[in-house]
Design brief:
The complex is a heterodimer of chains A (108) and B (120). With 108 residues, chain A is mainly β. Chain A has no helices and nine strands. Chain B is mainly beta and 120 residues long. Classes of the chains: A mainly beta (108), B mainly beta (120).
């Protein structure tokens, strides 16, 4: 099955930029979606289809996807961005859904 | 807006069957634009997709769970359900229901989640 690898943790100072990677074999050929999960809460999609934002998600959240790596970028990081972030794809050959291993973002 | 709410027992004995229901409000499980999924998260761990069902009962499951999972849909009650047989401690998790959007294949919205503990 398709495997998505994320760094376990990313630390960033307030106001700086956080970049979270999601690695997978030729992931650039798939649509990647990103979820934010605050402690004790359900995940919420923050980026879908590589780089689109749902309504209500700040422009500070952006995404890109090419080759073997997709990236979620959080600009001007705020304390409220501290959460776990997961990437997700659909393996079109099997129609199975796969989540990345998750990255904990800590705001220093 | 669409809201999802999980319900079911919070404690299940080993070897028994876990049963959960997701009630959808503000939208219809009969919509052909969406599919309806179950996703779980063991305590302190990551997300695992369990499976999905479409309004016409077509479904697909995670290969690692396929032999133990049944997902059904009841359009008259606007609900869909999960059954997981022969549970063990490793099945202890927060179980989420979520709506999937065909075409884009992402999950939105999610239910709040319900913790199911497998223990004697």
């Amino acid at each position: 099955s398709f495997v998505l690898t994320q760094p376990p943790s990313v630390s960033v100072a307030p106001g700086k930029t956080a970049r979270i990677t999601c690695g997978g074999n030729n992931i650039g050929s798939k649509s990647v979606h990103w979820y934010q999960q605050r402690p004790g809460q359900a995940p919420v999609v923050v980026v879908y289809d590589d780089s689109d934002r749902p309504s209500g998600i700040p422009e500070r959240f952006s995404g890109s996807n090419s080759g073997n790596t997709a990236t979620l970028t959080i600009s001007r990081v705020e304390a409220g961005d501290e959460a776990d972030y997961y990437c997700q794809v659909c393996d079109s050959r099997s129609d199975h859904y796969v989540f990345g291993t998750g990255t904990k973002v800590t705001v220093l | 807006q669409v809201q999802l709410q999980e319900s079911g027992p919070g404690l299940v004995k080993p070897s028994e069957t876990l049963s959960l229901t997701c009630t959808v409000s503000g939208g219809s499980v009969g919509s052909g634009n969406y599919f309806w999924s179950w996703i779980r998260q063991p305590p302190g761990k990551g997300l695992e997709w369990i499976g999905y069902i479409f309004y016409n009962a077509s479904s697909n499951f995670n290969p690692s769970l396929k032999s133990r999972v049944t997902i059904s849909v009841d359009t008259s009650k606007n609900q869909f359900s999960l059954m997981l047989t022969s549970v063990a401690a490793a099945d202890t998790a927060v179980y989420y229901c979520a709506r999937g959007r065909f075409g884009s294949n992402y999950f939105d919205p999610w239910g709040q989640g319900t913790l199911v503990t497998v223990s004697t």
